[in-house]
Amino acid sequence: EDEDLVITPTGAKGREQPVEGTLLGIKRTVEECRQLARLAAEQPPGSSSLALLDGTLILWGLEAYPEFVTGALLDKGFLSCLEDVRKLNHDKKVALGSYISFPRSTDVVNVLRVAICPHEPADCDRYCPPDKAKDCDAVAGVRDRELFLNLLSQGERSALFISPSKIVREHYGVNHVYFFYLRVDDEIARVEIPRWVAEDEGLLNLAHALVLDQCRRGQGYPVALSEAHEQAVVTAANKEYFWQLVESLCLEEKMPTLTSAKRLFII
Question: 146-149, long-range: CB within 8 Å, 24+ apart, which pairs?
Fold first, then answer.
């Protein structure tokens, strides 16, 4: 509908934000979460379940938009849906999380960089000239997944970590994003959860167990998410052609063509 294509602030006629580009992707995530909350509400009393999203719980990119856009899509949209799921836990157990296959994040490695730094406090601008080698270069280029691939056994999860994201700190509250890494076969996945799941051992263990079960059923990728991908408009042939183009470009640039379990399943 037309009202879904623009976001207009209350009482400010003539000022509107078209829903396109980055915002269109965020809008889709909000609607997916809203539908997920509805499905979770339909679970019978006394049941245990996991509401699982594909990708991150952090709505990156909203900081570049006016506050009324953040309010509409995040505060009144995405976070409201997370709250709806949280409130279901009075007569049933519903954990909530998101699954990131082949994560590129370096949050934990960045902590190691600070720990390695001999200066107190760590201050690159003050102590480390651009043309001088730094102690923290020992972990330069390392991603979290590479670190935990050497630390975790099959099915194990890491300790919990807290997202340092500015938008999370300022808006998420009880839904502040925590995350852990999970070893699934030869891949490390990142699982993000809200604070209310992280602080409830029962819900945390439920999220861990059900994500792992989903991956085992789905050849290394959560079967519920892979089935959702099958409903996408883009055909398998188009997906395969896209990945062939990506791999061709990587080969031309002499870059490695590592593949995630997610890609193997959805093409």
Answer: 146/188, 147/108, 147/109, 147/112, 148/108, 148/181, 148/183, 148/188, 149/183, 149/186, 149/188
Burial (0-12, 13-18, 19+ Cβ within 10 Å), 67: exposed
H-type alpha helices, the chain: 22-41, 67-70, 79-86, 107-116, 124-127, 144-149, 166-171, 195-198, 201-217, 223-229, 236-252, 261-266
pLDDT digit string (tens) for 130-176? 777 887 777 888 999 999 999 999 999 999 999 999 999 999 999 99
Instruction: Provide the CA 220 distance to its chain's centre, in angstroms.
Output: 17
As beta bridge partners, residue 191 has 99, 180
Instruction: Give the chain's largest Cα–Cα span.
Output: 63
DSSP state, residue 173: G
Distance CA 176, CA 69 (A): 20
In terms of DSSP bridges, do strands 48-54 and 17-18 run parallel, antiparallel, or are they unpaired?
unpaired
Give the domain ranges of the chain: 2-101+155-220, 232-267
pTM of the shown model = 0.82
Helices (H) and strands (E) counted in the chain, each on its own, are 12, 7
DSSP H/E element including 183: strand 177-184
